[in-house]
Each structure stands twice: as structure tokens, then as C-alpha cells.
Design a protein that fits this description.
The protein is of the alpha+beta class. Helices cover about 20% and strands about 35% of the residues. Strands 1, 2, 3, 4, 5, 6, 7, 8 and 9 form a nine-stranded mixed sheet that branches. Strand 4 and strand 5 form a beta hairpin. It starts with a strand and ends with a strand. Bound molecules: cobalt (II) ion (CO).
């Protein structure tokens, strides 16, 4: 069911400050900022040898990550995304096993333009998990 880790997402209150920290303190290579109003976020990608970390800053208080930052003012790990070979089959297996998809059960298009679902954190070790069609 689970393939490679596609990305790890970190919510941050100030994406430019976060990018500067990562660049200065780790030497990481980071993409430019993309603003995605339909997803409610500013996003930048920290490149790692075997994947990437997404820095996510909410555009406004309606952003899906705004509530997370209310509870974690300095930011923190928001979710882990795995590639799956067949997203619909993975979703159906999850639901059959008593897991819950966040929002509707329909897949949605993520910031990378791929179909994804998010699994309820209470159903997997208190951690928000995203599954992405590989
Ligand atoms: Co993600």
C-alpha cells in the first residue's frame, strides 16, 4: 500500500524567516516561494537527496494550516506524505479497515498537481498522513 515518502510538511508562521534559517543553518537548497490561493498556503521546497520538505505558511486565517499554527505558534511538523501506486485502492483499503479520510472521501488535487487524500490523524498515531498518487 505505502510507497516512498514523497515529502514531509512543516507549518511555519513566516516562510521567509524559515527559509533564511534553513539556508543559514543547514546550507539547504530551497525553491522559490509559490503562493497557492486555492490551497490557502505559501509553499517552498527544501531539497533533500531522497525527497523534500515543504515549508507551508498560511495565506490567511481560513487556511487549512492556520489552526495548527494557533496551537503551535513557532511552527512544527504538519504531515508526512507517501506515494501510493493506486490511490483509490489505498483509500478503499483504509476505509474498509475503519480509517477515515479527512473531508470528503473524494481525492483532491494537491499543491503539486497530483491527486491526494489525507488520513485522519486520530487513525494513524496522532499524525496527519497524506497519500499521493505516484
Ligand atoms: Co503535503
Amino acid at each position: 500500500m505505502i510507497g516512498s515518502i514523497n515529502h514531509i510538511a512543516i507549518a511555519v508562521p513566516d516562510i521567509r524567516a524559515a527559509m533564511a534559517q534553513w539556508q543559514e543553518r543547514t546550507g539547504a537548497e530551497i525553491s522559490d516561494i509559490q503562493t497557492l490561493p486555492e490551497h490557502g498556503v505559501h509553499v517552498a521546497f527544501i531539497k533533500a537527496e531522497n525527497g523534500k520538505v515543504e515549508l507551508l505558511e498560511p495565506i490567511d486565517e481560513h487556511s487549512p494550516i492556520a489552526k495548527f499554527l494557533e496551537k503551535n505558534a513557532d511552527g512544527g511538523m504538519h504531515h508526512i506524505c507517501f506515494d501510493v501506486a493506486d490511490l483509490i485502492a489505498s483509500r478503499d483499503k483504509l476505509i474498509a479497515a475503519g480509517g477515515r479520510v479527512l473531508g470528503s472521501d473524494e481525492t483532491r488535487i494537491c499543491v503539486r498537481g497530483k491527486p491526494v487524500i489525507f488520513i485522519h490523524p486520530k487513525d494513524l498515531s496522532g499524525t496527519l498522513i497524506e497519500l499521493q498518487q505516484a
